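EI: anyone free to look at a 357-residue chain?
SC: sure, send it
EI:
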Amino acid sequence: MWLKNKLSSIEGLISLIFFSALVLISMIAIPMFVIKSSPVSALEEAQVDNTDVNTEVKENNFVTLTGNDVIKVHLTKEDKIIEIPLEEYVKSVVSGEMLASFESEALKAQAVAARTYVAAKKTRPCNEAKGGDVCDTTHCQVFITKESRLEKWGDQGNEYWAKISEAVDATKGMVLTYDNELVQYPQFFSTSSGMTENAVDVFSSAVPYLVSTESKGEEIAPKFTSEFSFDISKFVSNINSKYEDAKISEENLQNDIEILGRSDAGGVKEIRFGGAKVKGSDFRLAFGLSSTNFQFTINGDKIIFNCKGYGHGVGMSQWGANVMAKDGKGYEEILKHYYTGIELKEVKFNWILFSSK
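SC: here you go
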């Protein structure tokens, strides 16, 4: 009996010590892992994964993200995820998104935009990346491995890669911020029609740094203008199939189509097909047009759409950035022109490790 009571006392003491240790550990560890999730804008649906790294903290001239600077990229064709250091990822994206022949200051601006985009994705991963931070397609940013890019460039590969690497290294760690917050939507596109678009006119959500601004000199871009021709019979069939209330006819097509409104930049905000009203951006995507800035004409058995610009038109125009760079503008001036009210800060990663030892 004495031995049994003694053992019970010892077991009770051990339990008390173990419980006290757990309380002490929780007091230390829990504050270290409190995560402030970033709000998800209506601009883009996103999955916010709070199990990894997504705290955003403002600190002087830095943006601090809790986590590490390794980017998990889902390769769509191979259906696998690779891990790559942030700056190397940015080099691959710049090589995939902008012509290496562009001016260095334009490449630097692209590097900052690309870095900002993926930094934001560390807080709200791409919902098509299958557990990664980003995918490798235009759904996120075009990512091409260094090896693939060098092969496609051929003899100029090493020269181009060195040029892009220099631009990325010159902006190492720099990201866009607005009101001391990391910019969540650093949109960019190929070619404007002379002005960029307001985000609200394209994505239906207002974003204070994505507002229409002038973008001069882009007439030199190869895709500044484009023409798309459709057989009227097929066009009518496709419209009636896509939009139930349209009910348009070949005989009355001219009266069945009406542009209802345009943006400040000239993009079609809404267009009517018979009884159906369609957003200009939705129509553009459905029929593969270069931009929403279009006019249409009917000529015989064809309907022809003439477009100005290439891409969604929101944020930084890549060809416009290159024109500004040719005019002697630096990358910071370029970025502040296309992203209203932004400031540049350096991103830092605060990787918190917890050890059981």
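EI: The chain has a mean pLDDT of 85.
SC: 👍
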